[in-house]
Amino acid sequence: MPSQPSDTSREVEEVQLELFRQATPARRFALMDSFSSSLKRASMRRHEATHGKGRTAQLAWVREQYGDELADKLERYLQTHE
Question: Rounded to an integer, what distance in angstroms lies between the CA atom of residue 69 and that of residue 49?
Fold first, then answer.
């Protein structure tokens, strides 16, 4: 299986990896934090497109990310603390 995405040439991937290796730990952390935040936002937008904005989409996101048990506990908590 190739390591690079289909839209990235081997040469570009090598340059990107070298730049990442040369980055300071703080810069690498910032890049990964930004990437993680982008993925969370994209995932939430997908749930909002399916469930509409609001609690239903938020609970669906929690269910997908953390599982049924935590989502059920969160839902019960929210119902009793409104």
Answer: 24
